[in-house]
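Anyone else keep sequences and structure tokens together like this?

Example one:
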Amino acid sequence: MKVNSQFDLAVLGADDPLGEAVLRLLEERELAIGRLYPLTLNEVETTVGFAGKDWPCLTEHEFDFSLAQALVVATRAGAARSLAAQALAARSTLPVVAVEGIEPAPAVVVARVLRVVDALSGVHSAEAFAALPVAMAGKAGIDELSSQTRGLFNLESPDPEVFPQQVAFNLSPLPDAEYDAVLGAAAQRLLGKPLQVGFSSIQAPLFFGAAVMLHVRTAQVVELGALRQALTRAQGITLMETGLPGAMPTPATDAAESDDVFVGRIQAADKHLRFWLVFDPMRLEALQIVAAVENWIDKPANSMLT
């Protein structure tokens, strides 16, 4: 880690799951970050780990955005958007990457698998049923699932705050009714063609990992042997088909901190395919944010970051 770098980075939401995933990746990639400014929207004092030490998080009231050469917004909280807008209003040349400006992880994994299928047999349409973790609602979502789980074991009635309904031991549609449309548009954008890709997303009592049941209607009948070979060769895909039930990929056992989408239980009937997909949404979204930071660092000496 080149700690003497002059590239100083502010990370808003550094103590949220996505922010923590971004910091882990920055450290793994050994990017030349000089001074890190971890920012929090929470009232409670907290720290984050980075480059082998703990960094106390600052609130927006304690931080002067002119100190940073770039800003990462790693939280979906509405207050973060307002703060980023204020920072840009004060300093219009400040490079900013926000979670709203990257491709959502469920669309990334679905497009990754559909790209392989489309190359083999053409894709007529696809439907994805996504079970998403509370981590996508930030640290507050994780805290709510934890507290509700403990409370239910103690025969206490859950008191929803972050989510509209009880999240522990329960399933419900996502509070954001527009998210499925966002996912469909993102999948088409990633595939580079106007394929019909529908999403139905639920809030699952999962902390971090996510899963998708993907149903695909193909233009031609797919030979399963060729499909499995293509998936095995594809970058960013791990095929985990096996006859052993305990070896099936699951969000809790396989997804954590992996760049890949894990594919299991492929089923075929005529021109219809079904896939079970498992992935780490925080990791896949953090990868895109860190790629933007890498690009900023690699800019020539006469760039606006100097």
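And example two:
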Amino acid sequence: MKRTPKIRVIATKVTGGLHRSKLTPCQDFYHYACSGNKLVAVVSDGAGSAKYGKIGAKIVCETLVDLLINAPIKDAKKNVQSAIEIAREKLMFHRLNKSKTEEEILNFSATIVGVVYHRDKGVFFHIGDGAGIALYDNSNREQYVVSMPANGCFDCETYFYTMNNWKECLRFTEIGKAKSLFLMTDGVTQFALSHDDRTLKNGFILPINQYLLSESNKLKAMQALNNTLDTKQARKLNSDDKTFLWAAL
């Protein structure tokens, strides 16, 4: 009997220096699920300006993964939109939404970077900053596709699934047969991508990928990833929370 290759996932989140200095918790969240050779994964950055950004990030990650893991990939784009609508409805009736109005869900603002992948094809779905990367060759940095960050008129302005025009901000990027996938929040993108967010920087994605492929001990792999994201230099370069998810397909 032919064995189905097992999907491996390593993910972690690191509290940024800014939140540490203010003694506030990490606002990022991630969630993923595997079923056979199918993967659904989402990372989210809760807006620092939103009172309940961390909750908004958690709800959208869990809702998307729970609803998409058993849905056919051919309907992925439609199902992603439906799942986001359900997450927004959860915020409408959340106990912290005192007015139970759509306007107040802005208090839960968060970005979305996610992927659905099954049998050699998939799609990134994306609202706001952060990034998704699919490597088509684990040893060739020229063969990949990127779901790029999207920001507003100012560097500190981005888009959230809680906005009224969220459907206009939702982007999809098709993925072919990939070897490895990466999802990351905005705290990591400047280490992984060039200034224009279109190409990979040297010395980050490929070395991390090669190490995680070679390290069979998940705890050691997670510790090494944490150490990489939480060095003194990394904290100095970017004080934001950092979430990073890797999957070997």
